[in-house]
Amino acid sequence: MVAAIVAAAWHAPYTCRFRVTAKRVSIGTMVDETHTFKASCICGNISHEISIRKADLPLKGYMCHCDSCRHMTGALCLTVTFLPAYYEPAKSLVEKLKGFQFSKRIIQYHCPTCGCQMMARCVEDAEDPDSKVTWDATTGTLDDIDKHIGWQGHEFLSDTLDGGFADMLLEVHGKKLDRWPGRFGEGKDQLPCGGVEFYVRRPSPGSVIVKEVWPNKSSASDVTESDAPDSIEQYWLHDDHTKFPAGLCGCDSCRLASGVEATFWAFVPYMDINLDKEGELPFKFEVGIEKLKKYTSSPGCHRYFCDTCAATCFYMADDRKFMVDISVGLFAAAEGAKALSWLSWRTSHMGFLEDTIPRAERLSGGIGTALKSWEQHLQSEN
Length: 382
Known about the structure:
The chain is of the alpha+beta class. Helix content is 13%, strand content 29%. It has an eight-stranded mixed sheet with strand order 6-7-8-9-5-4-10-13. A seven-stranded mixed sheet has the order 18-19-20-21-16-15-22. The chain has a three-stranded antiparallel sheet with strand order 1-14-17, with no helix packed on it. The longest helix has 21 residues, at 361-381.
């Protein structure tokens, strides 16, 4: 039994962005009347400043859970803020970015080197060449959000089927976040990517002993009972070897590589990943997926993303090559975004919490509190 995984915004064709307009500000605005965000990606190829009038702070932030945003980012949601109408990026900045036509109205821009989602260009009317242009910024690229982003809520929750990340973040700094099933008045004009596609098999006997037999045996179907050692210690399968572990990471590296506030990883044995639904074509990073692009963020740490839409796809470490971290936002599980029949979630904490302090301490604190509540809910169901 397999779950198709597609690193593309191909399902649920929504244009799913809220928009808040603001008055234009004169060129003579004094420096002390503005706040300047510093924005960057993990490789440093894209580094710029966003100056906002202090009267417009805090900016409103949203988590979009639509299928399109999940598949485009690889995360369980896109974390985004909408910049005032007077903001316009420098032409030289836009020329350094790579664009993906997210919808007829929206072009999503990312760093072509590391794949970090940076910003989006939005028009009110795609059919009108003179339509007003506004810009969004992914919050994970910003240097300081704790007091300058006011989180509003989760949108397009109906796409998740199971609540998705909204169950892991209920409130921020005492403010309860809204939960919207969709968004009124939006058109369905999503354009597909489809650049990366692969399949994951459910845990098998080979999954248990993958550390001992891989890479000599690259497919789970190649493993027999005689390959199993007398005893084995393993940490990469949960729930009686029926589920892969999954968890949230708050480290700066993952944030700056993706552009979202938290990354969501499933830890899957290499031999349980295939290029075909039947499981006959073993997965290999070097061949088989033309659009998969690699960025080495530090010695021995490799990140892979879709070269078309910049979806974060994989993380691979040289010290555990038998294991692959897969972005949960790419899973197409029938039961919902959290893929609960496939994944056993770590609910005790978010990894590398220390990296969120003080930059996004309020947000990460809300995640920690909600994870504990969700853990109690899961325990009550068992």
